[in-house]
Amino acid sequence: MIRLCDVTVAYGQHVVLDHINLEIRDGETMVVLGASGSGKSTILRLIMGLQKPTSGKVFINDADITAYDEKQLDRVRQHMGMVFQYSALFDSMTVGENVAFGPRQRTKWSEEKIRNIVADRLRLVGLEGTEAMMPNDLSGGMKKRVSLARAIAMDPQIILYDEPTAGLDPLRCMDISRLIVQMQHHLHATSVVVTHDMTSAFYIADRLAFLQDGRFRLVADTETFKHTTDTDVQLFIHGGELPSKGDDR
After folding, report:
1. Could you tell me the pTM of the whole model?
2. In whole angstroms, what is the distance from residue 249 CA to residue 192 CA?
3. Cα–Cα distance measured from residue 249 to residue 137, given in angstroms and rounded to the nearest whole number
4. Tens-level pLDDT at each residue, the chain (249 residues)
C-alpha cells in the first residue's frame, strides 16, 4: 500500500531522512518510533504528499506520487484519514459538523447521507448522540475520539496517526489504543502510527520501525522488537534503562 524508496529529506546540510526504504503492507498497522526530531512526522507528511523528498520516491498503492501536482495529490488524499496529535478540531463547529467536514467539502452526498455517516462514525468511537456538543465541552479523550471519527468519515484506505495518545492519562491511552485496533478490524485500512507510547505501540502494531540518525535501525514485528539485542533499541523501549538479564518487561 505504501512504499518509501531510497528517500532522502535534507534541509541544506541537515539530513533528516537518509536514503530510507520502507514498505507498509495493505491492511497492516505500522508504528514508527524514534526520538523527538528524528523525522517521524516527516514520514507522515511524505505519505500525504505535503512534503516532497529531496531524492527518492514515494508510492501509494503502486502509484508514484513524487511528481504529482496538487490536484492529483488531493485525489490521493481523499483515500486517507489523519488523526492529529492534539485533535485539531474546529472550535467553532459542533462535533457533528467536525465529523461531516470532509464529506461536505469533498463529496456531493445528500445531507441525509452525511448525517447518517456522522451518526455511524460517532457510534463506532463510542460517542453516539454527541453531534450537538462543542469541542470546548469535551475531555481530551473525547476530542481524540471525535478526531478519529472525522478521519474515518469517508472510509479511508489509509489512516495516519500523529501521537494519538499524547496528553492522555494511562487509562485513556489504552482506550484510544483499543479504538485504533477496532478501526483496523472494522475498516481493514492500512495504518501508520507515530508514537512515543511503547505500551500503545506494542498493543496496536503489526510491525514497528525505529528511526535513528536518519535511518531505520530496525523494522520488525513486536516480538522481535521486544527481544532484540540492539542496545539502542532496548534503551528506547525501556526509557533509557536497560532491563535486567532475564527481565521480560
Report:
1. 0.90
2. 25
3. 38
4. 999 999 999 999 999 999 999 999 999 999 999 988 889 999 999 999 999 999 999 999 999 999 999 999 999 999 999 998 878 899 999 999 999 999 999 899 999 999 999 999 999 999 999 999 999 999 988 999 999 999 999 999 999 999 998 888 888 899 999 999 988 888 899 999 999 889 999 999 999 999 999 999 999 999 999 999 999 999 999 886 545 444 443
Give the dihedral of Cα atoms 231, 233, 239, 241; nearest 10 deg. -10
- What span, in angstroms and rounded, lies between the C-alpha atoms of 20 and 56? 9
* Three cell numbers written together for 223: 516480538
Closest to 197 in 3D by CA, of 233, 145, 237: 237
The candidate with the shortest Cα–Cα distance to 35, out of 168, 196, 242, is 196
